[in-house]
TrEMBL record:
Keyword Hydrolase attributed: yes
Residue span, ABC transporter domain: 7-238
Protein name listed in UniProt: NitT/TauT family transport system ATP-binding protein/sulfonate transport system ATP-binding protein
Keyword list, A-Z: ATP-binding, Cell membrane, Hydrolase, Membrane, Nucleotide-binding, Transport
Organism for this UniProt entry: Silvimonas terrae
Length: 274
């Protein structure tokens, strides 16, 4: 099991030049994430969610404030932080085990240790028997599971997920959300999920960070004190989802962040299928 990290974001700000003028994208972001916590970040397009992940992963250094992992300021990319994007980004000429093995390119493990780690993580994501398959032989959901295995094979302290299921069909999304929860519980690492899907955020997160745009700021943090596995059809689940959706008003933004909004009176009878 990997070591779970504490992540502290302190007074974070980020500017991008637009037409020669600096434009704030993130402003005064402060957030502390406990070891092994699963945090969901939701917000409309343009609120800086993906920019925040890019800064945490270390792809950009030009920002104000601090991002601190286990007491050390983040500088550049590192094996202690993994990331999964919306597209699986597998190399089509490599097999499943070879794609997963790319996550160990900078590892100091022996060949035998690498082989064992690759097989363990293929098994972890439920793809035993597909080791020699190529990406074109996999479904979209299977491809994303390979990407998750590749991100975890180094046993990072933090796994970042940027809309990992956004391009998948509804039933596959639902299934992979359950699988991601199982993997998180088994691995015990800190996970941060960026999503437009409020139901996904409630299903997976210990807390939900609600962001507002232009510039991106934390509007509110919502606790999700529900036992796992979570019942999407329960009144308590629907009430938290509705509470988060209310942060986006009653118009287009709320519609963009939810496929359908339950009637609180009959929420107990709802069975959400994504």
């Amino acid at each position: 099991m990997a070591h779970a990290a504490t992540l502290d974001i302190r007074n974070l700000g980020k500017l991008y030049p637009v037409s020669g003028e600096p434009k704030p994208v993130l402003e005064n972001i402060s957030l502390s994430i406990k070891p092994g916590e699963f945090v969901s970040i939701v917000g409309a397009s343009g609120c800086g969610k993906s920019t925040l992940l890019r800064l945490i992963i270390g792809l950009e250094q030009d920002y104000q404030g601090e991002i601190v992992l286990d007491g050390q300021r983040i500088i550049g990319t590192s094996l202690n932080r993994g990331i999964v994007f919306q597209e699986h980004r597998l190399f089509p000429w490599l097999t499943v085990e070879q794609n997963v093995g790319l996550g160990l390119l900078n590892s100091d493990q022996s060949p035998a240790q690498r082989k064992k780690a690759i097989q363990e993580h293929i098994d972890l994501v439920g793809l035993k028997g597909f080791e020699t398959a190529y990406p074109y032989q996999l479904s979209g959901g299977m491809g994303q599971r390979v990407a998750i295995a590749r991100a975890l094979v180094n046993r990072p302290e933090v796994l970042l997920l940027d809309e990992p299921f956004g391009a998948l069909d509804a039933l596959t999304r639902n299934y992979l959300q359950q699988e991601l929860q199982r993997i998180w519980e088994q691995e015990g690492i800190t996970m941060i999920l960026v999503t437009h899907d409020v139901e996904e955020a409630v299903y997976l997160g210990d807390r939900i960070v609600v962001m507002q745009p232009r510039p991106g700021r934390i509007k509110r943090i919502v606790d999700v004190p529900l036992a796992r596995p979570r019942d999407r059809g329960s009144y308590e689940f629907a009430a938290i989802k509705e509470d988060v959706l209310q942060e986006f008003g009653d118009g287009k933004l709320a519609a963009d962040l939810s496929v359908r909004r339950p009637d609180p009176v009959s929420a107990g009878e709802w069975h959400f299928a994504w």
